[in-house]
Queue: 2 jobs
Job 1
Amino acid sequence: MLNGLKGLGVTLRGALRSKVTAEYPKEHLPIDNRFMGFPALTWDAARDEPYCTGCIVCVRYCPTQCMSAQMQDNPKFAEGVSHRKKIIETFEINLGRCILCGICVDVCNFDAIEMSHEHERSERLRNANRVDLPTLLDMGRQYQAEVGWKQSKPNAASPNERAAAKAAVEATKAEETPENPETQAADDTDIPEKSGGDAA
Ligand code: SF4
Ligand code: SF4
């Protein structure tokens, strides 16, 4: 009898406790910033282009060989508005083979890839979960907005920015340099002689 009442107490306490699980996929629990979902490519809003240069370091290190990438010359570098000589042209990840190890993020030197919060991309067909460059960039932009993402180091100066900085330095130097000595001498000759001599 006593044990029965104890058991009933445990049941009642459990029934009154607040819920700690959710009925996925109908309900979603909030995702922690540290959550590692599928890899995604980040977007450089200042340059209005991806951070990825297509260097393929991540492709070479990926243990499941589920990535492929191709670089191209960056037209924005030719215009002088970007510091990136090369930029990504095509990028594909077969998410069905990705094991979410994060090695691609660790080896990237350009802040170009992050483990996003995306985790709901299951497909019925084998190899149907290949994502292309626009999709990877969409996933990246969403992740950047969610976590208030910041790049680890500032961008290098673009050719136009370097030229503007050089022109500013030269203008400052020209202002600080004393006037041309020849001009100064010519100015001195224009000064009228003292009138004391005429009085003698
Ligand atoms: S994500 Fe990083 S490592 Fe991979 S190709 Fe782009 S720049 Fe290179
Ligand atoms: S997380 Fe790992 S398996 Fe997935 S793409 Fe990156 S390196 Fe490859």
Note: Residues 52-58, 69, 88, 108, 110, 112-113 surround iron/sulfur cluster (ligand 1) (CB under 6 Å).
Job 2
Amino acid sequence: MSEKVYSVCVIGGGSAGTMAALRTILNNDECLFFSGSPKDKKKSRALWVRKVENVPAHLGYKRGIEDPNLETLKWIQESAFKDNFHIQKNCGVVSIKKNEKDLFEIVDSKDRKYLASFVILCTGVMDVQPHIQGTIETVFDYANAQTIDYCLICDGHHVLDKKTAIIGHDNSAAWAAIMLYERYHCPEMTILTNGKEPTFQPDTQKLITLYNINVMTTLIKEIKGEEKGKILKGFVLEDANFIEAEMSFVSMGMIVYNELAKQLGAELDERGFVKGDLNGLTSVSGLYVAGDLKANTRKQIYTAWDNAVSAATAINLIIRTNERKKRLLGHN
Ligand SMILES: Cc1cc2nc3c(=O)[nH]c(=O)nc-3n(C[C@H](O)[C@H](O)[C@H](O)COP(=O)(O)OP(=O)(O)OC[C@H]3O[C@@H](n4cnc5c(N)ncnc54)[C@H](O)[C@@H]3O)c2cc1C
């Protein structure tokens, strides 16, 4: 292992990771940056995002997270700060631990090893997908066209005056249906539990009944649509019922990419999200978390940015304070 110690290592190249790298570089701190292996990228939420309508100045991008992120990384690599930026393209981190000097020992997917003083972990999450016809691939065209969607805050407004279906069976799925119905006056709202028993709480069930939200518990047999998922028509159920829907949201929970946090023994919440303070500092010294991976944050681009800026700025404060102390002692 080379003995070089990088100041800050940013792991993840989505909204949080790119902002963490940008802020670290603009703070004039050295940044070792992993955007993820092709396998990591395939599993990232950023990959699914097309048009972004809830963040100003993003309408022009075809891939609302990937395109502006690549633009930013290119700018850093051409900027006056480029020598401080160590980007490991198409490369992920496979293991991480603390050594006896309290430094992070990092191993990447090409089996290279690094040392870093601080880490900002931004590995994100992925939405659980429904199995239809025995596979999750049935939804891919619709997910790509965002007629079957996942993010209520970002894309909920697409259901305005539209017949809508929620795929899911728990209380969160019920609340997704209630919120969209109340906000956008959907002429028909259906919850498709895809063969599962609903687990709605009594107060939630009251609203489901009040709003005439249909709950269909039969397995989904087929999705009907046109133009490679750009148009959604509805869902055929195993009992031959056809549920008309022009838009659908999946609400089945999230897979949290907390493997590296677990390797370091960071504290997680009951759903597996990594706990961090206001600046994202975790229970492990020097380890910060930002973006969707962080517990109790809204899963959005601008919250990922905000977390990332807080983490990079808190780290810069520690670096400057340590440097200042050394100068005052006459060591520099
Ligand atoms: C369909 C859909 C549409 C959405 N639309 C919007 C929208 O319009 N507006 C909005 O604000 N939000 C939207 N979101 C939410 C938004 O995508 C997330 O909030 C945002 O991507 C979170 O950023 P992140 O950096 O935490 O995670 P991600 O963007 O998921 O990035 C995670 C990164 O970590 C990398 N990674 C994972 N493991 C490793 C590893 N071991 N080593 C190195 N790298 C690793 C991946 O390659 C990836 O680059 C949408 C989400 C979905 C699913």
Note: The longest strand covers residues 113-121.
